[in-house]
Amino acid sequence: MTNLLSPLSKWKFWKELIIMTVGMMIAAAAVYYFMMPSNLIVGSISGLSLVIARITGWEMSIIVMAINAFLLVLAWLLIGKEFGAKTVYTAMILGPMIDLWGVICPAERLIPEGATSVMGEPFLDMICFVLVLSLSQTIMFSINASTGGLDILAKIVNKYLHFDIGASVAVAGAIICCTAFAINPFHLVVLGLIGTWINGLTIDYFTASFNRKKRVCIISKDHELIRRHIIEKLHRGCSLYPVVGGYSGEESFEIQTLLTKDEFSDLMAYIRDNKIQSFVTAGNVSEIYGRWSHNARHHKG
After folding, report:
1. Stretch 75-88: mean pLDDT, rounded?
2. Average pLDDT over the chain, rounded to an integer
3. CA distance 16 to 144
């Protein structure tokens, strides 16, 4: 029993629980305010559920929960227990949160007079839906979770076929989009396919932005001061390479390190405040593999 309850005492558990709850509120808002009123079927389990709901007359929230329950078994077996456990929570609260938005602020209040959707134009509804949903999906993927449904299929494709997560979402979503022929005219299905493609691109963009780090290269005679600041103050690793100036012929060292944006600002302030003569270049890196901690400061106590 103690082993089962031990995760509940950790801040990481509660932090991720809050992140997942907020992320799912965002996803539910996208579905309730932009997808449902416009009958827009952008590739997602919510879109598939909307098709089934329109055909059968069943409650959409119930259909969402039923499909997600099946996919959760796949997530647990094929992706991993952590991902599966988190997705159990997120998938099961999506349907109730859609209903909760209906209680908090019914969509009818936001639909302009004479219009059938919040934005009053299918293309604008699609753009708003994709942007809001992509933000939610990116938040979930960043903590090894998902919004359930399509994201589970996309994660399976990502893990076993090694597609980018955005491409995985687009491929799985395009298949689901085609089910919309049962309830929507051709132009709306095409609009949904375009939205699914944009969804994949947006997820890749948000993911790259969330994971972006700075690859910093510094050449300086005072490389030892900079090295100590990186290791002792920023708690990051670095590499030193001997270099020779092509013009002056002077020998020096180049320091290379990977930093977050805030850490890079801290380092540049240190160099500036201490009037250290240096030559600095920096570029963005969106993917890091191997030993690099997101919380280096905390690990060093």
Report:
1. 79
2. 80
3. 10
pTM above 0.90, yes or no: no
Beta bridge partners of 254: 219, 241
Which residue, of 185, 210, 235, is where some domain finishes?
210
Q: Do 167 and 287 share a domain, yes or no?
A: no
> How do residues 18-31 score in pLDDT, each as one tens digit?
999 999 999 889 88
**CATH assignment at residue 246:** 3.30.70.120
For 27, how many CA atoms within 13 A lie in the half-sphere containing its CB? Answer: 32
Q: Residue range 121-134: average pLDDT?
A: 84
Least confident of 10-24, 128-142, 199-213, 218-232: 199-213
Residues 60 and 139 in one domain: yes
Q: Which two tokens stand for residue 98?
A: 């859609």
Overall domain count for the chain: 2
Residue 166 belongs to some domain of the structure:
yes
Mean pLDDT of 128-141: 85
Decide if 2 is inside a domain: no
Can you give the residue range of the structural domain that contains 272?
A: 212-299
Q: Are residues 42 and 83 in the same domain?
A: yes
